[in-house]
Design goal:
Length: 209
């Protein structure tokens, strides 16, 4: 597994039939002949250490925390301690989604940029002053999800759009290339209602039911 950028590049270069991305395609990517098909939605959970008193943050507060405007937990109702910012590496779809939604692109002051969701969760679980973001499907009980604007991150709130920090999971294909019979069969299955339970079991929110 790598960031979304590599799946998109692989399709554009003809090395893959179907690329996987956890963000929408950009206009220039669509202009180059790539097509996106949304399979599922994913909430990006904002996570803190279970010991942290803070249980709710607004999008604006999250943005100010990640851009370094708010640097102490006491400014958002927590203890007097420096906030430790954990995030993903450049090219990560999770990072792209998080920064797009919070309008913090290229201005986040990360203490650590990690290459997997699991690493982010482990790091936040081990540091009482850390904050991070991770796919809803991956979050267990080692960290605490804060509500965003009073709305918890759940399948229901992602699906109805009330939870703001969310992104699509997409299949990326090349419009000018006809898929092989096998690739088309997989594409058709994955986008059918038959795949909905598998998608849900994996922790994402299916869009075709």
């Amino acid at each position: 597994p790598t960031g979304s950028g590599s799946g998109i590049t692989a399709v554009s270069e003809g090395r893959c039939d179907i690329g996987l991305a956890s963000r929408a395609l950009k206009d220039d990517e669509k202009a180059s002949g790539l097509k996106e098909t949304v399979l599922a939605l994913d909430g990006i959970a904002i996570i803190v250490n279970p010991e942290n008193k803070v249980s709710d943050l607004s999008i604006e507060q999250i943005a100010k925390i990640y851009t370094g405007e708010i640097t102490n937990w006491k400014d958002v109702g927590g203890d007097d301690a420096e906030i430790v910012l954990i995030g993903r590496e450049a090219g990560s779809g999770t990072r792209d989604g998080f920064e797009s939604i919070t309008d913090t692109k290229d201005s986040c002051k990360y203490r650590q940029e990690l290459t997997s969701t699991g690493d982010v969760i482990t790091t936040v679980a081990g540091n009482p002053n850390a904050i991070g973001y991770a796919s809803l499907s991956a979050v267990g009980d080692t960290v605490k999800m804060v509500t965003v604007g009073g709305v918890e991150c759940s399948e229901e709130t992602v699906k109805d759009g009330s939870y703001e920090v969310q992104r699509p999971f997409v299949f990326v294909t090349n419009d000018s290339v006809t898929l092989s019979a096998q690739a088309q069969a997989f594409f058709d299955f994955a986008t059918s209602t038959d795949a909905a339970d598998l998608i849900r079991t994996a922790g994402a929110v299916p869009v075709n039911e």
